[in-house]
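Format notes (please read before filing issues)

Several people have asked whether sequences and structure tokens are stored in separate files. They are not. Every record keeps both together, in the order shown below: the sequence lines, then the token lines. Line labels are part of the format and must not be stripped during preprocessing.
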Amino acid sequence: MNKYPKRLIEVDLPIKRISAHSRREKNIRQGHPATLHVWWARRPLAACRAVACASLWPDPADKFCPSDFQTIAKAEMRRWALENLSLLSESALKRFIRISKKTTILEEPVELRKALLDFIADFANWDNASNEQFLGTSQLLTRTAHLSMGGQENTVPLIVDPFAGGGAIPLEALRVGANAFASDLNPIAVLLNRVVIEYLPTFGTALSNSIRECGKWVLDNAERELSDLYPKDQDGAQPIAYLWARQIRCEGPQCGIQIPLMRSLWLAKKGKSSIALRMIVNQKTNAVDFEIIRNANRGSISSGTIAKGSALCPRCGYTTPSKSIRKQMIAANGGSASAKLVAVRYNDQQTAKRDYRLPTKVDINAANLAVEQLEIMRNKHKGPLSLVPDELVNTKPHSVNRLPMYGMKTWGSVFTPRQSLAIATFSSYVSRLDECPTYQGPLELLKAVKVCLSLAVDRLIDFNSSLCVLNSVGGRGVVHTFGRQALPMVWDFMETNPFNEIGANWMAGINAFCNTIESTRLPNSDSISRTASATSHPLPDNSAQLVFTDPPYYDMISYADLSDFFYVWLRRTLYKEDLPDIEMDLSETPKNEEIIVEPTFVGNVGVKDNAFYLSQMKTAMNEARRITTPDGLCIVVFAHKSTSGWEAQLESLLASGWVVTGSWPIDTERAARVSAIGQARLGSSIHLVCRPRMSHNGHLQSEVGDWRDVLAELPVRIHNWMPRLESEGIVGADAIFACIGPALEIYSRFSSVERADGSVVNLTEYLEEVWAAVSKEALNRVFEGADAAGFEEDSRLTAIWLWTISTGTNGNKDDDSAIVKSAGYIIEYDAARKIAQGLGAHLEQLTSLVEIKSDNARLLPVSERTKYLFGKEGVESSNRKRKKKDAQIGLGFLEEMEKEEEQLSIDGSLSANLGKTVLDQLHQCMILFATGRSEAMKRLIVEEGVGRDQRFWRLAQALSALYPKNVDEKRWVDGILARKKSFGF
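Then the structure lines:
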């Protein structure tokens, strides 16, 4: 095999600092590319930027690292130490101050590596993304690395993303000094990438200036046509948004009133300034009217009219079931056009604060006028497409799209008549941008402006559909359509005034677009965004120095289904002649080739099951290897929620001839949230580092590995890797996945691994061994200083189960969440099975500890083990009364014994019910502590001798460290440990 220098990412990566920058970036909106257009599950730019640098730059401590790169890298790091200390973070400052005092430190290759990693960690900071000093150094190092490793003069490396999506990876490719080739099947993704990697570097501020100029022309024309539909109040106040409620007819006997479907009657929850609605049944009109309640308090406001799909009549009290509601919604085509105007949000002229009022006749007449004008415009409209989208909404999958179930069968039915008319008007003027009299620039720039304004129309659509909800918390107002990655049914919705002066309007979208362009610094490049399938890539062999991609996640959402929401309008704004290389004349975005598992899919490729995903992903990964140079890398990002998902991804990689040389978890989600307690969630995105498995002649290497040698090397590799992860705060499920890289490097270096009898060891079999090795190593670290094998299987399983769901936030002093009752600890069943098998535990025999339900396994909380541990009646009695001091304990059985006889009876039964295992005994003590039974607990620990077994205390210490910080169980076990000395141990 040829000898190429390892890249930095194959040796080290400052994941803790990169993760912090990635998490912070989620809260940044001003100037961020994510504001250009909705895209789902975007990669943090911080992670993409850092990984791109570390993947392109060689490790200076590698014996094959080119001397040219070492020379330039040392010079740049010295310059930073002497000139740019003020730009560095505290984490990097200490090292660079040492370098400034003694520049020869960098002659040591390992020190140079550490300096480069510090630079990368600081460059990942959003505040430095457009800093000329960081950009200049990164681009110089990228160019030097490329040329010193055989690149041609006057060229830069090419980074390819065959699943480009929202464009985070291609954007950062340009920022760090490479060219990008971004491809995707989805035309919206292709357009987003074209704006970022083609238009922005080419036109710069000229693009933003022209967008503002032409956007203002569109606004003026649209406002001239639509102003009567959004009338101002008599005092000049302008409505910001309108609250509507879909309606059904009450099916109660002799009622038939029109019920406005309201989830809540709150308009703004702002303490003493709270505003709510009160329903008033109008017997004359057989309808429900409303009044505004100011300074509302929780006790005076009733619930809404709909909950869990059923509607409660405010007049007769009859509950109309969800099935009947669905029938009425289907008959009303979703009810967007027949909704009731409930309230108007406006900006008070005197107080300059957002307020609410009831709708007036003027408001209602304006909405009715929109119905008339829309019909007139429909009759006048000419063209191959309808004025308002009549394309059908995909009836499947229901997991992300509930609209057809409620009568919204076409995309046009998702919008009210006024919304449809407004969007069609803005779209019409954008499509006729060549009529703008003030524009004097070149034709190519005008085409770019038209694409950008078309995406701005999409932003307006996102904030102006009948799926936009009201966020009453703090009086925030309109929440855009894609507040989450789905299209659910929304009963009451907010309609935005596109001409309002507060937000979520046309010009707000224009300004957000321009701010992003003006705050992003990208060099000129030869980067390209194209429509292409990852399974048939248009690039020639050996053309990419780095394939860096975030492929579809197995059974996650269908982006194609969601993006049709925008695409049906986009194809009415942009025509084929505008973008001849992008499919703008399809009735929907391409779905046949979308590589996901979706059993409900109906198309010409058959069922999209595991076999489909594996086959297509294998082809895509094979194409990625084909276009990668022999010394190049492939970075695959994944965060599959299921073991079947990541096993399929890994199998496709290895079957395509890739060798996994590393894996790095970069955290974008981790937080000490009560909602996350008890869930084994992958809080990080795992970045798998791969190289082509090539031989000296450039062909796929074919070498058979010995199973015994692989098994012997695996635990050693895991043992050496786990402390590194712990030092970065990587534990639990993240640590398991982060061990995949080192583990697979052993296995994937061979074309196949065989046993002594010649049988081949498949990937699934090997991954079982990986789980076992990781679990055993983690167990030894949990019971540090003790022989983990000495603990019974229920103790071993509980410890590793809790370790797997941990997120490294247990010791977070800033987490002041209240103590909560644990509902158990959930892990996907297949993962639980692998953990148990690796520890020699038998899951099916531990029914008193683990509950198997559907695809999940739940480690029971201690509170649910009471009857098992103490016998049929446990420690509870039906005639007990709870004392006030017990009110906060939070479990139903935590009540004082009413009679002394019951106390003695239970205490007397402790010996007979003494737990069979150390875990059972510890759980018994925890329950006694929770119920305030100190004497009984003491008797169990001291007189019954439970405390004389050192395993009892070691297990208690381990569980104390593993339980989530704010669950009752941690408090109980800590209470036992606090009494250890007083018990004489």
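For reference, the curators noted about this record: The CA atoms of residues 98 and 327 lie 74 Å apart. The two ends are 60 Å apart (CA to CA).
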